[in-house]
Design goal:
This protein is mainly α. It is built from 8 helices and no strands.
């Protein structure tokens, strides 16, 4: 019998908070059950397993992150939109490292088929990139460049990987300037290319 007050949504929110505190890799069903003062088995009426819980966290995080980014980029275009997007992305990841880690997991298509946040995140990314005059397949390539640059920077920052005395924020700002230049001067595909 399901414990009164426990719902999948409530468990997901608590698990997301716990992942932010201890790290997604340290999140367990047992730790979550302890927070609610119940046995592990009480949670299985609402979640399938740890993988299901992590997918739920990722879906929640994708919605939260895309909402933050959407608010940041509203009414902006070009470099202003790129900077607003990047700053919102980074702020979310640094404030919610466990949730952010969940968004980086590899998913089966059926696990995220109904992800409103995931679709919105893709649409926001494409909107920023289209303002640079890009079309497919360059949109995909540029999107991958942004994700790799943002994720790499954030992972290094989360792991205190920047030891130089120069402030990390200044390097972040200059990196965004460089990405703007790269997007503004995106190389043309070779003539006759079938890419």
């Amino acid at each position: 019998m399901a414990r009164a007050g426990l719902t999948a949504a409530r468990l997901t929110e608590a698990a997301a908070q716990l992942a932010d505190e201890v790290g997604l890799d340290r999140l367990t069903v047992s730790a979550l059950a302890r927070q609610f003062g119940v046995k592990d088995a009480s949670l299985y009426s609402h979640i399938k397993n740890l993988r299901d819980l992590r997918v739920r966290i990722a879906l929640l995080a994708a919605e939260e992150m895309s909402e933050k980014i959407a608010l940041a980029v509203a009414g902006r275009a070009g470099k202003d939109a790129l900077i607003a997007f990047a700053d919102a992305y980074r702020e979310f990841a640094l404030a919610h490292p466990g949730r952010y880690a969940a968004t980086q997991l590899q998913f089966d298509p059926e696990e995220v088929a109904d992800s409103v946040g995931g679709r919105r995140g893709v649409e926001l990314t494409l909107g920023v990139l289209r303002a640079y005059g890009l079309a497919e397949p360059d949109l995909t390539d540029a999107g991958r460049l942004l994700r790799a640059a943002f994720h790499g920077y954030i992972q290094l920052e989360l792991n205190q990987g920047f030891a130089h005395s120069r402030p990390v924020q200044q390097s972040w700002s200059r990196s965004l300037d460089a990405l703007h230049v790269a997007l503004s001067n995106w190389p043309a595909r070779p003539t006759g290319s079938t890419e």
